[in-house]
Amino acid sequence: MSQPPFEPNFSEEERLRQFLRQSRTPPPPPSSDLEDRILRSVAAHPLQRRSRLFWGWVGIPILVGTLLAWAGYQRWQAQMVAQETEALETFLVSTWGGLLGQDGVEAETWWIELGPEGS
Questions:
Q1: Fewer CB within 10 Å, N or C, the chain?
Q2: Positive or negative, the Cα torsion across 57, 58, 63, 69?
């Protein structure tokens, strides 16, 4: 009877483990001067501080550009709101003025035409 494909076959896995244990290569012999060679190599290539300088030259213009773009967007948005408000006020004055001015009744639009200071 064969095993379902989703169950592991432990005998095959164990044979694979045995094969890998027998076939592995022995580790190289320890080198007595390996540590000295590593330290000399590290000392020959000191760390460079170029990365901080790079971020100074790149990061600051990116930050300034982002701030200028944000300020420009805020100004554009304020202009759009002012234009929309003016268009809405014009629409209300013309619409309500026409409705209230019918049948000989005087239009009472003084409250629409007042400025933000109330005068």
A1: N
A2: positive
Q: Please enumerate in sequence order all residues whose Cβ is within 8 A of that of 13, keeping only pairs 6 or more positions apart, or say none.
A: none
Q: Which pTM was predicted?
A: 0.34
Strands (E), the chain: none
CA distance 13 to 9: 6
What lies within 8 Å, CB to CB, of 113 at 6+ separation is 93
Count of helix runs (H) and strand runs (E) in the chain:
4, 0
Closest CA to 85 of 118, 109, 112: 112
pLDDT tens-place values along the chain, 119 residues long: 455 555 566 788 899 999 999 999 888 888 889 889 989 988 888 776 666 667 777 888 888 999 999 999 999 999 999 999 999 988 888 787 666 555 544 555 556 665 666 55
